[in-house]
């Protein structure tokens, strides 16, 4: 299939590479052109604008960092919408709020195109391995058509119904992720202050019902309080917490623990950790500030 | 070996049964005598007091709910200490604070006995399956002697050094457990309020880096908001949170998220959920009060 | 002066009445026309739209509940902006976010008009007594011209500089107010659970450095847990907390206590207390739910 | 009257001085003898132990920092109890938990003495001015006898019933105090981050229903983020928060906001601010760490 891919950062480039590997013809665009080079070397073509990508593709995918970035590649004369023709498909893989997603759906459908929001769970490694979880919602016909693409990028694919549902599911997932990692960070701070060996704590946690891949993946770096290269940048996790709390406000749903976790992530931003991995929250939680 | 076992509630009875299965000779005592019947049927003998248990055993184990219960079977003329002779072993499997544990060690050593604190991670099912994680600390000689017993009850056994270390490790573990489950409960509340299917949320969570046995075990009951028979009673989890926060105060270690989680568990107690499973926290988190 | 006044709810009607008392000629408009009757009886005139109010006034004031309500009377053919002529003044007395206020300033200035944001501190009683605190920001010339009006409504008037500053000052004020009242509510819950006499607690609090009019005003109703007719509706306080937390997110400023207070206010909304006075937070804080 | 006074720190020395001024004969003792000098110069006598103070007095007062310090001057051969004779009075002015206070009452009554717990509200300045609020509970006969003493130290004196009631009332008062000051600190952090003038914020807060002496007293130092000489040491406020939260746990009363405020105070301790005034919490709240 002729596929467009816009936004080739950490996640997007790994996902796009899996589409190339699956034999699809890929046209790409990125705000910073130099991030496109690796994919061009793998056989992708470069277009001069999001609109141009859309004009060259049956289905155009976008993987952006936040709602503002989504609208920056979507709107205007050079935007994706401007390049869409009736019957084409637009799949937004970004993790954003439901309102932005619904607006994109509205604009795409005005052009006669189909739309799917399809945020993913998983960071760099699962993205590279084609092992993401993909939560899709929107036009079922496009979902059916795009399933081979989604399966090239993820191993667990769910269709969740109307536009907005996948955005919300993703927020619920990330809220749980942030809560779990903060719990680990606080457990480590308590253990460390008590003179315990953090590798033994990780061993205990991994031996029973709490055992999970994330703790295995992040635990050692958190124990060492050093080296948090971003698999999932902390500022994006804080953005997701903000969106989750905004949604909860609309629903009149108190989220006491998540609201507190969000303040810890804000403290991490204030401490200059926005571009570190979200596991850097452990350096905020520990009272031993270097 | 001749083993004593005091405290045969949900956890203790399952652990004692595994000692019987491993071929050990068991003398038991419990405050409510009727809880002893199943073990007596399996071949255990009943003693008339904790002191009598101790007099009949090479190693005496206790599995109590909290520090007060520990001292109630430990102290006085009928208590374990009164029945201890030089060279005997006393293993306290309860999850309690380090100070109580150190006091028990001091009393046991005054009698010439050896002491091990050995709190366990895992609830009813792992207890039945002999698959607990056991964190031991205290006299290494007793640890070496008792290893076959511990291996009959658990599959992961760690020796952590001086008395107090295992108590603290257990608190760190349970702090993480409470934080994870509260994160799940808040994620569910957000998803449910958004009209999402909670079984799909559980599927998403189980598909990636967050996948863990506890979510699989507790998730469905939490989604249904019904039926929380106690595998691990909520009031015991709140007690562990209280002990963890007390330890953190001594260490001047702020634990913002855990402090908030503790307030949610206190709300659950106020709502009469102390004897339900700790997963009943989900009914407090949800704003939809029936 | 010929003054327009749009939005005559609890606060607006009391403020408008003070303008009438001060001898100004008043044209009014309200979405629900029946709320205008008392002012019409005092001599005000009714206009058919916000635009019509603006056309009949030298200075037009608006006192709305939230940003959405502000734009509903500001925009469109029937909106205030449409009725503004060069040289006229537009004073927005609503408590809203800085962004909305800046947008109003931009629109007013496009028409050649002057703009002042002027949120007020104080609820029904100070509004009736002309004893509000008014925080003004925007066009200094309009401030100088409008000072007699402001002094008819308030006893403490500050000029804070550029548009947005007063909106932010108001949010800081209300954040402190919510925090203080929540502290009182939690102190009462602790005292009440301890079997103490809450009137003695209020006497203690009023005897020293904490003594303040709000505790005197709200304390008895909170002690009685009954009767919270809205002087300042709880839902508006929660809106202000939300705006304060949004601002804090932009500033990367953690506000741990305020975030928790906001969740309590959200719980109050979930409990159906949005239209009660914000002192009804005490019924959420107390664990004794009737 | 012949009065004994034990514990002459910041508060105790000011209170004892007022007893001297009122014409009472004073015998004193303090762990650090050098703190006694000013009072000796005013005419007090020095005793060699708390027991000796008790033997020389009709009524012996103690003003200690925490439960541990209370028992250190109360117990043992050199302790107050050892020096008490039937009919004497023992007044503990310390802010401590109800359990410690009840234990003191039990010990005093065993000796045939009367007991009053009488924690005070107010810091250095009201202590010097004899303007404290004193919450008394215990033996009413001793209260009646001691009223002239209490009136020499305070201007608002309440009798609250059985021992424990005054301890709890004091905790409720201090919980409110900590919550109010944290609310001010967070309001200031928001205002400061927004570029507002903090002296204008203080002016706004002081103009309406929130106006209180504590904000006037502490506000300027908090705005300047500099100079927090201890009127009420932060570590004592954190101790009171800990005791309040312990009491709330016994009562199954969630205190979400107070639990969060306590974590902020713990962070302040971790930052080395324990001996600063409790208003130093503002330097923890602000995200701008120097």
Description:
- The structure is a homotetramer of 290-residue chains.
- In chain A, strands 1, 2, 3, 4, 5, 6, 7, 8 and 9 form a 9-stranded mixed β-sheet that branches.
- With 290 residues, chain A is an alpha/beta fold.
- Chain A is built from 14 helices and 9 strands.
- The model of chain A has no long low-confidence stretch (mean pLDDT 95).
- Helix content of chain A is 53%, strand content 13%.
- In chain A, helix 9 (165-193) crosses helix 12 (234-250), helix 10 packs antiparallel against helix 11 and helix 12 (234-250) packs antiparallel against helix 13.
- The first copy, chain A, has helices at residues 10-21, 37-41, 50-55, 67-74, 80-83, 98-110, 124-128, 140-153, 165-193, 198-206, 213-224, 234-250, 256-270, 281-285; strands spanning 2-6, 25-29, 45-46, 59-62, 89-92, 114-117, 120-121, 132-138, 154-159.
- Chain A folds into 2 domains: 2-161, NAD(P)-binding Rossmann-like Domain (Rossmann fold); 168-285, N-(1-d-carboxylethyl)-l-norvaline Dehydrogenase, domain 2, CATH 1.10.1040.10.
- In chain A, helix 1 links the parallel strand 1 and strand 2 (25-29).
- Chains A and C meet through helix 12 and helix 13 of A and helix 12 and helix 13 of C.
Q: From the 3D coordinates, which CATH architecture of the largest domain in chain A would you assign?
A: 3-Layer(aba) Sandwich
Tertiary shape of chain A? globular
Work out the number of β strands of chain A: 9
Strand content of chain A: 5-15%
What multimeric state do the chains show?
homotetramer
Structural class of chain A comes to alpha/beta
């Amino acid at each position: 299939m002729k596929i467009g891919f816009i936004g080739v950062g950490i996640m997007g480039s790994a996902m796009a590479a899996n589409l190339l590997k699956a034999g699809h013809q890929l046209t790409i665009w990125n705000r910073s052109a130099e991030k496109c080079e690796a994919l061009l070397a793998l056989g992708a073509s470069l277009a001069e604008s999001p609109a141009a990508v859309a004009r060259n593709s049956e289905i155009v995918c976008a993987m952006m960092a936040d709602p503002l970035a989504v609208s920056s590649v979507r709107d205007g004369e050079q935007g994706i919408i401007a390049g869409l023709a009736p019957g084409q498909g637009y799949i937004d893989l970004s993790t954003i709020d439901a309102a932005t997603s619904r607006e994109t759906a509205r604009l795409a459908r005005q052009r006669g195109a189909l739309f799917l929001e399809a945020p993913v769970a998983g960071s760099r490694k699962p993205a590279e391995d084609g092992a993401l979880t993909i939560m899709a919602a929107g036009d079922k016909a496009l979902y059916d058509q795009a399933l081979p693409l989604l399966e090239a990028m993820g191993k667990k694919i769910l269709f969740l119904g109307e536009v907005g549902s996948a955005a919300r599911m993703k927020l619920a997932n990330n809220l749980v992720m942030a809560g779990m990692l903060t719990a680990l960070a606080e457990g480590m701070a308590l253990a460390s202050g008590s003179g315990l060996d953090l590798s033994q704590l990780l061993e205990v946690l991994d031996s029973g019902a709490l055992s999970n891949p994330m703790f295995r993946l992040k635990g050692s770096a958190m124990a060492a309080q050093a080296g948090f290269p971003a698999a999932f940048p902390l500022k994006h996790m804080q953005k997701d917490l903000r969106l989750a709390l905004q949604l909860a406000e609309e629903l009149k749903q108190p989220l006491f623990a998540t609201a507190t976790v969000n303040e810890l992530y804000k403290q991490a931003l204030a401490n200059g950790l926005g571009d570190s991995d979200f596991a850097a929250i452990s350096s905020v939680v520990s009272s031993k500030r270097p």
